[in-house]
Amino acid sequence: MLRRAAVVVASVVTAVGVTQGGAAADPLGWLPAPVNACGEAGLDPVARKADPKIPVPPAPPAEPVTPTVQVPVPKVVPFYTPKQPDKTRISAAPLPADPCENPCPELTGGVARTDIPIPPGTPVWPQDSLPPGSAETAPTPQAAPAPAPAPPGEVPRVRIVEDPETIPVPLSLLGPDVTGPRPGPEPPVVHPPVQPAPVSRPVPAPRVHDVFPVTQLTGPGSQNRTDSRWQVNDTDLGIMWETRPGQVAVVFGDTFGQGFVDGGPSGTDWRSNVLAFSSDHDLAHGMSFDSMVSDRNCHAAEVLGSYKVNNFEMTVIPTSGFALGDRQYLSYMSVVRWSKTPGKWWTAYGGLAYSDDGGQTWDQDAYARWDNIFGQGQFQVTAMVPHDGYVYMFGTPNGRFGSLAVARVAQDDVLNKSAYQYWVDGFWRPTWQPAAPGGQGIELSASPVLSGVAGEVSVRFDAAAGQWEMTCLDVSRNVIVLRRSATPQGLWSDPATLLNTADYPAGYGGFIHPWSTEHELYFTVSEWGHYNVYLLHAGID
């Protein structure tokens, strides 16, 4: 997800030291950065001590404080509506038999990476990449000195910095030559009945152990070498669902090509989202990608278009995916702007898109949308799960500081908003409350199903255990947690800590792999600093 400020961090508990109750483990000993099987340097997501062979530089002298004042400056940005997404697609050639061969050498300067020796002791992705820390310890870094105050009697200088504030100006596309999708007829209004849905008895909290990173999925030095194969140098999220038996789709958020700089999203070739496919069942040894939706050779396509205009629609971020028969669905949020406060953003609406060609091209439905009225929309960041004839929608407001609610709809009516039922005080109720004669109806508010806040929720139904399973980011405790329940509306179990923010600096997400089992949980975590995605393992009792 493209952000202007650092996100709330979330960390993983490594196999060499399980943390309990959100307590952070001490940083591990220094190790060289892991490499993939081709010898390309990857990214180590775990918090580690500094290289003891590199001397700590002396602290720079203190400098006088120079206060900075940002002054908003209007910036008019005209753009055309409606948006015309590029649906150019190619049938990508099979990947080379040699996984270290670059399929597009013209994009990488013709460099072959097949004969690079891997130094002894260097961790190798996947699985053995993060063994216990070495016995070496780094010297204690010297703290940077506090800025020196201005001399007595001297007025400190103030630096004025312009802060452009976008004023969006939409221009209608008119004329006989304009083509593009037009909304079809609005679905008929239906009135689902009120049905009782009492909460279930709580199930025991899961016991988590053996949490560790398995592999780096994206970016330079990753198992999938996405930078040379699809020009995916940095990205985030990694939301997964089963598209058909034997295949999993993996959708990512804001994605960038060349020009990656460690420390957050950067570079050229900004795509709001990209989509990969995997048939790899051997998750203990990583997850290889078979292909990505592509619009040209060695280039992942943007699957859901966005305006990329701040204060109107900055980007479109997928939040979950699911399949009903041969049709694929993506829930997404239309982000108006990112906040400078970590963990906050504003959306225009949450919506649904669908694909009838195996995920190659997508249509954003014009009516299956939940508007963010006055910033209070409950179903802005959603996780949608088909089960037993219904699709359940777990939703939070925009950002990571809201409560969690749940709705459901019959699978045949998933694109008809009027067919949804919200869970309200122990009942499944229609989303719209009819008015008395002569009055206007109102949309109901769903009841929260969890106490506290939830961010970036991922949910699945564990058929083997006969229980629902949920992961989410708890920013109040700076952890990613795991819960279980017998029913979608709960009661949900007490949270079990999966990840602690001090162990995986600048981590977030936590999206469940659909082929996880009752006792083996596989999930993805992103890191803001590296801005790439990792596959993690957790044992569950």
Give an overview in words.
The protein has one helix at residues 226-230, and strands at residues 68-81, 159-172, 195-196, 208-216, 237-244, 247-252, 274-278, 291-292, 294-296, 299-300, 315-324, 327-338, 345-355, 363-371, 381-387, 390-396, 405-410, 421-424, 427-430, 432-433, 442-443, 455-462, 467-474, 479-485, 496-500, 507-512, 520-527, 532-540. The strands form eight sheets. A six-stranded antiparallel beta sheet has the order 3-19-18-17-16-15, with no helix packed on it. A four-stranded antiparallel beta sheet has the order 4-28-27-26, with no helix packed on it. It is mostly beta strands and 541 residues long. It is 1% helix and 35% strand.
The main pleated sheet reads as: 6 strands, antiparallel
- Helix count, per DSSP? 1
- Which bin fits the share of residues in helices? under 10%
Oligomeric state: single chain
Structure in a nutshell:
The chain is mainly β and 541 residues long. It has one helix at residues 226-230, and strands at residues 68-81, 159-172, 195-196, 208-216, 237-244, 247-252, 274-278, 291-292, 294-296, 299-300, 315-324, 327-338, 345-355, 363-371, 381-387, 390-396, 405-410, 421-424, 427-430, 432-433, 442-443, 455-462, 467-474, 479-485, 496-500, 507-512, 520-527, 532-540. The chain has a 6-stranded antiparallel sheet, with no helix packed on it.
